[in-house]
Amino acid sequence: MSLLFILFFPLVIGAILLVAKPKQAFAISLIASIIELVATILVLKDAATAENGLVFTKPWIEEAGISFSLWVDGVNGILIGLCALMVPFIVATTANSDKANNSQYQGLMLAMQTALMGAFLAKDAFLFYFFFEASLLPIYFLAAIYGGENKNAITFKFFVYTLFGSLFLLIGLIYVYLVTPGSHSSDIETLYQTATMLPERIQGNLFLAFFIAFAIKMPIFPFHTWQPDTYTVAPTQATMLLSGIMLKMGTYGLIRLVLPMFPLGIITWGNTAIILSVIGIIYGSVIAIQQKDAKRLLAYSSFAHVGLMSAGILSQSLEGIQGALYQMLSHGINIVGLFFIIEIIERRTKSREIAQLGGITQYSYVLTVAFVILSLGSVALPLTNGFIGEFLLLKSVFDHDMIIGIVAGISIILGAVYTLRLIQKTMFGNFSRITKDFEDLSAAEKWVLIPLCAFVILGGVYPTWILNFTEPGVQALVSLLK
Amino acid sequence: MNYQPQDFLPIFVQLAAALAFIVLVMVLTHALGPKRHSAKKDDSFECGIESIGDARTPISVKYFLVAILFVLFDLEIVFMYPWAVNFKQLAWNGFYEMIVFMGLLLAGFIYVIKKGILTWEK
Amino acid sequence: MTAIIALSLFGISNLFLGFWFPRKTIQLVTLLFLVVSMALTVSDWNHELLWFGNMFRTTNTSINFSLIIQLAAFFVVAFSKAFGQDDEHTHPAEYYAIMLFSVVGAILMVSFDHMIVLFVGLEILSVAMYVLTGSDKRNLRSNEAAIKYFLMGSFTTGFLLFGITLVYGATRSFYISNIGTILTTTAPESMPSFLFIGVLLIIVGLLFKVSAAPFHFWTPDVYEGAPTIFTMFMSTIVKTASFAALFQLVSGIFGSLYTVWVLPVYFISMLTLVVGNISAVYQQSVKRMLAFSSISHAGYLILTVSSKQISTTSSILYYSLSYTLATVVAFAVLILVSEYQSARVEKPENFSSFEGLAKNNPGLALCFSISMLSLAGIPLTAGFWGKFFIFSDTFSRNIIYPVILAILMSAVGIYYYFKGIIAVYLKAGEIEKIEVPTLFKMALWACTLGTIILGIYPSLVKSVF
């Protein structure tokens, strides 16, 4: 029942916001997301102590053997935690802006949370697919209604592109589902058993179908063309949802579905996929270095980070998956914080052009410190949360193939280049016409940034409790691969 | 009673003969007949009176309505012949069915009258 | 079975009610009639029986199809507003009566056990549709549409009849069950070759009615020319009935001739998907877009028909239901918007006249968007599961490439359905609050809710089908 609560509670509140349009949308939405966070923490605590994780199953489409089943184990627990943790912050970033009491905006964000939670919680493959696609609707409307310049064309491309990709996932899922014995079942664990029995050629094709779907979602080179535009044009909160949480649906799909289902497929195509991911890392970083728009720069940096996660996952090692899970969490925290900082700057200066900014540190000390901490997390400096994940990921890629590992390692240097350049150009130096008299952070803004910075440090100093939480689930998963 | 397609051959022969006759006669008349063209001769024949205007003038839709209704009711009377011939064999069952049939017809007739389709001047 | 007698009598009484009552009363009475006939249809549930000299069979499948047809008719009647300017010259009672008669034809088509009943049912349905298509008498487009529909329709009816004759010639029976036994017990090699031509001709005759490419050329013009309310009728009821008939024939009695018809049917379904979806992309008019969308949905359904699985019946039923619910809403909103815009813009049925609908009519905008989402097959709507069941059926027969094409095409579909949503929500435009009659509003919300409920919990009806 508690699983049902954390799944549907945001949707219920979101629906109320959308229909009733109350005046205090911000307060309702913030309180709801905090309740959701508390409930999720309680669920995760249960899951950590429970023997085989928590499972909830109800028949859904009995005739077809499709059930409404949810579970929490080490693998998805961390993502559920991330989703529940970040949404209150994302909601809080709207404080005092024109979107704060826009009940439609808040309602769509909460609806989005349910869709994301559903995709992470689902134990049934079709339920996963259902939420995987359903999450597109609220995010599409968020981006398309509140987006910036040229929003219609860009968000539309985003929608069609990602939906097109997930249709491949649908074909693949249906194929595996029809192989299951008897009157068919789409339970993920049943699919593991049947899919691994398939001959190599078919597994290879299915791997491609699944990989394309997830690669578009993440995105992986060369399926990324929707991403920078969408991230740039979407309102900041939608970008946070997209990069902070929704992107992880792709990596989660790789871990949860692709790895255990198609071991033979990975033998055929895994290396290609890893190389594509690594190309994405380098490509994203190089382009990020040249960006003039700060938000676009972050979009490309996100593209680069996710490439490393994907490569680590596909290396199929315990470290790789652990690292990817840890990195998903830290990337979610860091990128939300960074996007918020850009939003803060944009609110005051009406500009995101790196060249036009500078010297903000003279006016806002706290903002500078927060920016530096979050950026260092993103660059993966030791003692920040990014380090643990990137280290594990790089190690796994390195173990898999040394040359690829070395190439991927370059990404850390490139990451440092564009991130530090961003900080230097925006924060330090002389103030410009528009950054003159930059208003210091408001209390609400501090309340968002300071905890996020605390998470960055905390995650870097004391990673073991999260790694311990994920380990049993990942162990079980890795043992399936052997 | 197992017909093969070739059993239908005589019918095709007959069809072909009929067609051939028509074609033959048409060709023959054209070939043999004298051809004299004049304005009067090429005009359509209207009992010797000079034709005026186009034959395709619009006719009041009322003519059509009456004509169609006539055909409808006329054809439905045809159904009564086989019934009358087999009256005894069909017995009461046939009688009831005919009553239903006539009842529907009558309903239609009343509808037509009430709708004012048969009133010429409106 | 009693339903068709009742509906015929209701239709006749409708004609007479027109003499005394205004349109609104007749509309309500017609709705009542349909409810009664639905109840009568349900009363045959689980009684598999033959009627009328063994020519008419009621099975649970046929009852389900009849119910979907009558439900569609119910909504169409509920969505019907004034037909034209004044009731005196537009004969509303007659339109309702003709609708009821054509529902009788549709029910005959879904429960025939004799080829002639199929033919008679098809003709009852079609002749009624020819009349309704041309019912906007003073509109040139409507007249053109009616003539086009009539000429093409009667021509392909000839195909169907010829096919029936050839099949009769080969099997010496009109009875579906007899033909089925003969075909399964005889080796195909010992059958006369004209049987196969007959089978294909019957399939072609029915494919015309569902507007499958390359027999679809009439569809856009007829859909556009006909008054929108009758386009709604055409795209739901005629489709469902023809598909039920096609399915019963093709995978029922012609099932043993699978190898004969399967390739042409594949080819046609793929062609239909491509033609329907690609042409829909280029449409400026919502009505024409919906016409092409109905062609493309025919493509998906033909794909299932060819899969010949046990679950196919329920998939087709589910798809028909979800398609019906979504389509009637789309047309209903189109009626309201085009009526509002007809005095204001030159082309009231274009996408551009939907722009800015969400601002003052959030309810209408929501209904329209949900119906578009359902037609596009996005999760949370009935259309998603419809597509899902169809793909899953087709896949289990190892039909790979047509399914991949279908999936590509449904991605194309998203493009043009979203044009509607974008126009409604994201484009700026001036549309004031549109007055919606209460009955209309109730029907609109009922359909929309139905779409969502079926999208969340498909078992609700899937367990019955």
Automatic annotation (TrEMBL), chain B:
GO terms for cellular component: NADH dehydrogenase complex; plasma membrane. It is an enzyme of class 7 (translocase). The chain crosses the membrane at residues 12-32, 63-83, 95-113. Its EC number is 7.1.1.-. It is a multi-pass membrane protein. It is found in: Cell membrane; Membrane. Its main location: membrane. Belongs to the complex I subunit 3 family. This is NADH-quinone oxidoreductase subunit A. It comes from Aquirufa nivalisilvae. The lineage of its organism: Bacteria, Pseudomonadati, Bacteroidota, Cytophagia, Cytophagales.
